[in-house]
Amino acid sequence: MKRYFIYSIVWITGIATLASCSLVRDPLEAYSDVTEGVNEAGEYVAFKDKAAVLSHRQSMYDQIRDRQEHWYLDLLLVGDAHADNAYAGTTGAEVLPFENNSIEGSNSVLGRDWGRYMEDVARANKLIVYVDSVDDNSLTTAERTLYKAEAKIFRALVYFDMVRLWGDVPLITTVARDITSENIGEVYESYFPMQSTEKEVYEQIQQDLLEALPHAPANNAQDKTRFSKSVARALLAKIYAEKPLRDYNKVIQYADELAADGFALEQDYSNLFGMNAGNTDAKMRNTSESILEGQFFAGNGNWVTWMFGRDLTNYNSNFTWAKWVTPSRDLINAFQQEGDQVRLNQSVVYYQTTWSNYYPASNYPFIYKLRSAVNSIIKYRYADILLLKAEALIQRDSPDLTAAAAIIDQVRARVNLAPLPAATRGNRAALLDALLKERRLELAFEGQRWFDLVRLDRVEPVMNAVYAKDSGRRAQVYPFTNYSYRLPIPQSILDQNPNLKQNLGY
């Protein structure tokens, strides 16, 4: 067996997991946790049996619950603090640039996220590529097809986050072979890939979702943690609203299919984020509105709540340091001007603190949508898709303003707000503005605001104006331009892969 060349690459696990051993020097006689992946002939085996497949599949699902930094914590930093909904919260050098628009490729948050996303891609790829070759007759054809569908949905949601952050990213759908002295030229591109265009990435997401849709599990009203057909439909609605694949009729189609799957707005908005009367458990899980969520229970709670405020199941725990993503005055004013007390009360809470970075310590606001270690993190919910349908009805070539206004009114009625005025309902531009504001209030602190501004080309007018009208926001370092729609590729990744190019403007 040839000695492998091992490359010390931080993000290499995003492409393949390299293992180095010499069977001559370190003889291995049987499968174990250590020997998994190599048979007696020294050949690579991804999964030795069905149990190994199921373990890997579970590890994929565990990412939604256990690895929250990149797909939740940092997306709130981008989606809300890099937009006008929030301030950075803490003054740390890795966080503040999202508020004052001074993000550079050296930012450690972006470096962490890139690596984590690529690890997720590798995890999905391994299941997609190898599940059909597992030599275990107890693993049925139907099960193999199901598991591949779930992995394709997972890969699609990972790439959807990546492409919205960075635009052109490496598109990896295979598992790279180990590097030997004989094949290094052949496999080099697998380890040092070039970026695919944003459109190509969206096309792969589309392909994964359409291929997965017939075989994925159906929506289970009692378990919203699965990569189901409904998750695929929600993602399809979202990608068709984006510029590279924009098709407003398909946004409407998949939103309607979600309604047919049984999704609807929760009658009580507090069911989504609230707790029981004793603050010992989440008020509800698996609501009619939740499409995909990570669930947490006593004993295996969610640590991310420490980053945003108080854990109401352990009130004083980890409340001695400034929290990330502090609600902005501009957003709080938007709630108040709209008379939107219901969503304000579910989104923002005030506590006394020992710090005063943005507000007086005696009355300091915090995110309230994740208020304990046992609340679910909702990745996708129906209100988002329903409002995207309204957006599509406004924006398509033959707009239906009446139907769009009816959807916005439905969302408003749930939180006791009056219908839109007639002047707004009949004016396309005014109705689009109302839609954008409604999404802001409905989806505050769910990581959506920045991406709404990008999708609708509102970054420059909104963000370059907010610093002057929001007295609490840190001074703007750089103006927002057309280059701001993408974030910088982490410099550490550029240093490791000479085939990658930095996004323009950084």
Automatic annotation (TrEMBL):
SUPFAM superfamilies: TPR-like
Top-level taxon in the UniProt lineage: Bacteria
Recorded coiled-coil stretches: none
Ranges where the RagB/SusD domain occurs: 259-506
Predominant location category: membrane
Localization, UniProt: Cell outer membrane
Keywords: Cell outer membrane, Membrane, Signal
InterPro entries: SusD-like_N, SusD_RagB_dom, TPR-like_helical_dom_sf
Residue ranges annotated for the SusD-like N-terminal domain, each copy included: 92-240
Pfam families membership: SusD-like_3 (PF14322), SusD_RagB (PF07980)
Family named by the database record: Belongs to the SusD family.
Protein name from the UniProt record: RagB/SusD family nutrient uptake outer membrane protein
